[in-house]
Fold:
Amino acid sequence: MTLKSDDVRSIAHLARLHIEEDAVDHYVDDLSSILALVEQMNQVDSQGVEPLSNPLDATQRLRDDNVTEVNQRDKFQQIAPDVAEGLYRVPRVIE
Amino acid sequence: MPMTVTEIRQGLASGQFSSVEITRDYLQRIAQHNPALNCFISVTEDLALQQAGAADALLAQGNPGLLTGVPLAHKDLFCTDGVKTSCGSRMLDNFIAPYDATAVERIRDAGAVMLGKTNMDEFAMGSSNENSWYGNVANPWNTAHVPGGSSGGSAAAVAAGLAPAATGTDTGGSIRQPAALCGVTGIKPTYGRVSRYGMIAFGSSLDQGGPFARSAADCALLLQAMSGFDARDSTSSDTPVDDYSARLEQGIEGLKIGLPKEYFAEGLDSRLARVIETAIDELRKQGAEILDISLPNTHLSIPTYYVVAMAECSSNLSRFDGVRFGHRCENPVDLEDLYKRSRGEGFGAEVKRRILIGTYALSAGYYDAYYLKAQQLRRMIKNDFQTAFDSVDLILGPTTPEVAFKIGAKTDDPVSMYLQDIYTISLNLAGLPGLSLPVGFVDGLPVGMQLIGNYFDEARLLQVAHRYQQVSDWHLQAPEAFS
Amino acid sequence: MTAAEISQWETVIGLEIHAQLATSSKIFSGASTAYGAEANTQACAVDLGLPGVLPVLNREAVRMAIRFGVAIDANIDHQSVFARKNYFYPDLPKGYQISQFEHPIVGKGQISISPAEGEHKLVGITRAHLEEDAGKSIHDQFPEQSGIDLNRAGTPLLEIVSEPDMRSAKEAVAYARKIHSLVRYLEICDGNMQEGSFRCDANVSIRRRGSDQLGTRAEIKNINSFRFLERAINHEVERQIEVIEDGGRVVQETRLYDSERDETRSMRSKEEANDYRYFPDPDLLPVNISASDIAEIRAALPELPEQKKQRYISELGLSDYNAELLTANRDTAVYFETAFAEADATQAAVLVNWILGDLAGALNKAGLDITESPINPAALVQLVARIADETISGKIAKQVFDAMWQGEGNADEIIEARGLRQITDSGAIETLIDEVIAANPEQVEQFRAGKEKVLGFLVGQVMKESRGKANPGQVNALLRDKLK
Structure:
């Protein structure tokens, strides 16, 4: 699988990553070589093998429905880049 | 010669020195040597001395905890309340964590003193520590060489005696590989043994925290403090934690150790292979039974691992968007600009590569071919180990295919860098525990040997490593330049 | 557009309903779900998606979802899996929403709706899955920026997805009301549409009548009342017919319903095709649901609207239509049952007529919920009892009801105070009749000549003289006697 520069641009958009235009070709090469590595997976027939998403095959534990958290807004918002009136601010969202 | 945690505990208990004194010693060593090594991103001097003072008070009361007064360092991936937690990234250069990771909390509760936060590959992505926003870390055995990664700062700090122990995390070898390259002992426990709460995620189904130290006995103490069930981590295991120190002295007579033929095949530096074989002979002498085994899907572990890790990281790193914390670009013109530039500026090249590949692997039309396929191979790799553990108690091999390479040697070729992880990453895919210990040198650089255990069999790994360290002194060697 | 033009087209509607589950804490964190707190004071580290934090699943959210599944007779697999839905939006802190994709907690089920009196239809439910709600963007607080409040982020949602089984806006509304009623019966959602606890998105497409292919659909969002749901769908259907008849094609897109302008419009911000990159969330493990968990939840289910309705029909002899109306809203049924428990068993039908008639009308006019009714069930029972024991006539009862509504007291007090007790003394009534006969000789003649209808007029005159207090039956009988 070889990527084209437009593929890299569209993946970068999906991932919301700015990539300098003059770096696109470099990414095309890097990503293509990684994909070539990854394609070694196709050497193996894995038909019928149950996918493993958690190494221990464990199951989810459930939490009781209790409110345990207290308001820490001030502490959390100290590390925020732009807050006002308790709100996180971003450039105007158009809906 | 640098002290072990065990020696520091004895010294503190006997009143030979105070925690404040030993902490000052380490802070002084850090001040002296860190400029050459770049192990630390932050040194928390005031906090360390304050914690040491409190530890001394506890010691005076004669009621110390497991690590009371012992200074150590945390990988800068563990959140530390009120202390910068950068994850080696420009993205989090301004991030003061508002809480402690569970592992940090437990180590602090055991009485340890935090010296600072260690350097690492950005977001734990790398095998050489060359991907840090804070610059690369040098290998104390030869500063022209890499210390390994991603927990390179922790490994180098312990090797150079800037800390007697340090925490690390291991997603594909990030504890074991730098431990091997720096000549220290490091253990990645079973997935779920150490809580991931407050560990900044790379590959959530692969990540595990664990310790670096100068000996298996020290690792046993650290791991004891870090381990155990945590209700805040759904993937944390409630399997009871063994008493690691208590089991150290058990012998290894009759223990069946398997050598996977795939770990001694093409790609392994033959000089390194000979060093490992010598160590195997020593274990045989100690009564272990050595058997040949096969892990036939080993060659699939690298592609499988990179698909899983990159897919998970592409999603895990989406929260770094410049809205609630972390780097935000100057004057964003609109929302898309805010996202793209904040992330474009905040992340380094390797992180971007992995996010892009992961995004691609999960995208419509490719999911089955990449992610689902990788999950299937993951089970096949796990099954290989399960079959092997039907006939052996432990698996043994090299930790890395070669000793520490020169800084810059592989930076232009991400794939050749990934191949460094060939022996370590299959454990993360299977969730098994692994330990690396020093067993010799090639070209003056340390060689690491990896012990692989069955699920929750950390005690056995520590016990075998401890036995070996009772009859060898590789782990006691220190690089002259920093002694 | 003429009716003929419209009738060539068949409308196909599927609904996605988001019901906020009524847990105390969030689905993956211990933060409160209470509505209306100051911005970001109920957003904890997990809700904010700070680095390193992890989700832990709320048991109650799982149980509530199963309760819904059991109520619609759905398949509930023994294992359910959470997945990440990846996209960037400021009200989505982690850059992904924890949702479900391949193994939703509730599988296929169905529900019966009654879009009009006497009509019944089964609507398929494709699935219902658990997910976390997003925060809110506030656009009017700052001149050039949007503000983000993440208090709502992490509130548990049950997304209920229907099959495209509905063929009109009316059916869609009936279905939405039915689900609304059900989640309230189950006490898993407060159903408050104004506060966004119950939200509907409608997938609308049209096709030529007779076709079995589905047309391209538009998804309409931002519908926060049943009335708007009907209007939004009807509007969208007209729009799509116009597009096609003008030679155009309907494009698959998300459209926002604007209730002020009563139109739908394309959401440009969501224009690009989304690629959500779903994959199982590695921070959460598969949820095991045992047969005994399900059995236990099933055993604890309250009586559901459909069961209640059937019971009202068979045990109380109510009409299908009235039973449906009475059970459509849990609070109405509770009101009725509270009243019925105190009333004479023979009065069920009368009581129901009052509840669905005058009381419903008055509540509707005042914009009140039945739980806020100024006339409580016991008071209504007393009023009905006074009709039954002939203390007052049905007509006077309406006067009494109005006075009760105004807070003048209970029925007995009002009857006393206003002197409304029915006149049953035949002597008094005969006096009135004599007066009326004397005053209307012409009509009396007509009646005697065989014009039966005139009797009604004469009865009315007597009633008028009695100011409504005479017993109409008695008046009728006595008048006939006198005119013989």
Summary: Chain A has three helices and three strands. Chain A has a mean pLDDT of 93.
